[in-house]
Amino acid sequence: MNRRYLSRSLKAWAFLVPTLVSIGIFCYWPAARALEGAFTTWDGVSAPTFVGLKNFDQLLHDTIFRGAFAHLFWWSIIGIPTGIGASLLVALLIYRLRSTRAQYWFRVAFTLTLCLPGLVGILTWGVFLESGGVIDSILGDLGLKGLETAWLADPHTAMGALIFMGFPWVGAFYMLVFYAGLQAIPLDTLDAAAVDGASSLRRVWHVELPLVKGQFKVILVLSIIGITQNLLPPLLLTQGGPENATWTPVLYMYENAFEYAQMGYALAIAFVLFLVSLVLAVAALRFLRTDKDTRKTVA
Amino acid sequence: MTAIARSSRGHRVKGISHYAALIFIGVLALFPMYFMAVSGLRNGIQLQTHPFSLSFAKPFGTFYSQAWSYLEGDFLRTGLIIASSVAGILIFGMSSAYAFARMEFLAKGFLFYAIFGLLLIPSFLTLIPLFIEVKDMNLLGNPLSLILPYIAGGQAFAIFVFRSSIRDIPEELFEAARVDGASHLRMLLRIVAPLSRPIMIAVALLNISAFWGDYVFPALVLNPISPTIAMAIGNFTPPPSVPTTNLVNLEFAAYTIVSIPMIILFVIFLRYFISGMASGAVKM
User: Fold this and answer.
1) Residue A154 is part of which domain span?
2) pLDDT tens for residues B189-211?
3) Euclidean distance between the first and final Cα of chain A, in Å?
4) Which residue in A100, A110, A175, B59 has the most C-beta neighbors within 10 A?
C-alpha cells in the first residue's frame, strides 16, 4: 500500500464523513442498543439490567404476543398477494393501452393517490368503517343491510376491516415499478409472441410476468418488510382492541415501550419480529432466484 | 408499433375493456380523496342522511376556514423541518455517492456494505433506542430531534440512487475537467450536481412525501404544543365551539388541507415523480 493510495483514500473519506457520522449516531448506535436491550430489563430511564433470555421466555407464554403474530400472519397472507396483484394488474392494463397518452394519464391518476399522506388515508378509512359510515351505506344500497356493523368496534370484524382498508389496494409505487419493468421488455420479444399467435393470457404468463420477475422480487421483499412494520392503522384506529382482536407485533412493541415503559420486553418483541422478517425476506429472494442473479454473482 | 394487425374488431373491444377496468379501479382508488374533500364542505346531518349527495353547508367552506385557523401555525414549522432534512439528505448523499461512483479508496467495499446494510434495518427496530438517545441528548421538543434522524435515515436510499445516476454521466465530461486540473470537489459541484438535478428532485419528493405524513416518531419527540402537521392531524382536538355532529366534517376539511401541499408539489413536479419513483427500484 503506497502513500499516494493512502492520501487518495483520505480525500475520499472526507466525502463520506457526514454520511458515516450521521448514520453511525442515528442508525447503527440505536440498532446495536436495540439488539442489546432485548436481553435486559429496562425502563428507559435508569441503566438496563441484563437478564439473559428472560424476555424471550416470557414472550413464549404471552397470549397477546402469540395472537399478534397470528394477526400478522393473516394480514400478510391476504394483504401481500392482493397488494402486489392489484398493482401488477393495473400496471399490465396500462401497459397494454395502445395510446401512450392514455398510458401517461392513467399513470398520473394512480400516482395521485400518493398525495394522500398515509396517516390521512388511514383516518379517512376509519371514518368509512364507522357504524353508519360509507361502507355501511354502500352495503345498504346493495340490499345487504343485515351486514351493517361498526366494523372496527366488533371483535369479529375488526382485524378483517384493518386488512380490507385501502381497497382496491393498488400501490402507486409498486405499480410504477412494474410499469417501468414492462417498458423495459424488448419490443421484438413481444413481436415474437404476437407472431406465434400467443393469446393474451398466455402472453401475460409466459412473456410479461417472467420479464418482470426482478421487479416482483424487489416488491415482494418491500411488502414483507412493509407489512411487518405497519404500525399506524392499529395504533390510530383500534389500539389492539376490541378484546385484543387487532394486536400486531409492532403495535405490541410500541405499547410495551411507550405505555408500560417495558423497554427491554418491547425490544425483545422487536428482535423476534426483525428476525422473522429477515428470514422471510431472504427466503423470498432465494425462492425467486433468477438466472440473471446467478450470472451477476459470477461476474 | 404496427398499425396493421391492431385495427381489427377484437382488438378494439379488448382496448375498451382495458379502459373500463382501469377507470373502474381508478375511481375506487381515488374515491377516499374525493369523498374527504367534498365532505369537508358539508355538515354532519347532510353527511349522515345522504352520504354521496352534493348539498353543501352554509356558509360555503366554513369547516375549511375553521380547520385552517387550527393548522395554520404548523405548516411553517413542518416545512422548515422537512426542508432542512431534505437539504441534508441531498448534500450528504451526493457527496458520498460521488465518492462511491468516482473514487477508489481503502475499505470501499466495506463502507459500501455498511451503508447499504442500513436498508435492511427496519425502522421499528431503532424506534425505541432512538427515542431514548434523543432524550439523553436533551433534544426532546427540539426540531433537531427530528431533523438529525431524518437526515441519517434518508441517506442509504439517496446514495444508492445517486451513485447509479453519477455512473451514467459520460466519462468525457470528467476527462475534460481533469485536463483543466479540476479537483473532485469541483467536478462534483460543476458537473455532477447540475446534471443530477432531475434525480435530486425525485429523491427530494420521495422524502418530502414520507416526512409530511410521518406521525409516530414526531409524536414521540416533539412537544404537542408545537407539532408537525401530521401530529396535529393525528391528535386533532377541535375547539369546543364545534358541535360534535359536525366534527367529522371539520376533520375531513383538515385532512384535505394537509393533502393540498402534496398535490401542488405533485402537479409541479409530475415528471420527476413518475420517473423518479421507478428509477431506483428498476436498477436494483
Assistant:
1) 52-298
2) 999 999 999 889 989 998 998 99
3) 26
4) A175
A157 DSSP 8-state letter: T
- In chain B, which residues have pLDDT < 70? 1-14, 276-284
Domain limits of chain B?
A: 5-39, 73-234+257-282
Q: Which of A4, A8, A13, A19 to mutate to test the interface with B (most CBs of B within 10 A)?
A: A19
Q: Which CATH number fits domain B73-234+257-282: 1.10.10.10, 3.40.50.720, 3.40.190.10, 1.10.3720.10?
A: 1.10.3720.10
Q: Is B96 on the interface with A (CB under 8 A)?
A: yes
pLDDT tens-digit map of A208-219 = 888 888 889 889
Closest residue, chain B, to A252 (C-alpha): B124
Spatial CB neighbours of B109, under 8 Å, sequence gap ≥ 6: none
pTM: 0.90
The per-type count for chain A, helices as H runs and strands as E runs, is 17, 2
* CA nearest to A107 within chain B: B274
Burial class (CB in 10 A: 0-12, 13-18, 19+), B2: exposed
In a domain? residue A268: yes
Whether residue A180 lies within 8 A of chain B, CB to CB, comes out as: yes
Chain B residues in contact with A278 (beta carbon < 8 A): 120
Q: Which residues of A touch B93 (CB under 8 A)?
A: 19
Residues of A in contact with B135 (CB under 8 A): 44
CB of B159 less than 8 A from some CB of A: yes
Beta strand ranges found along chain A (DSSP E)? 40-41, 49-50
The interface predicted TM-score (ipTM) is 0.88
Contact B101, B166 (CB under 8 A): yes
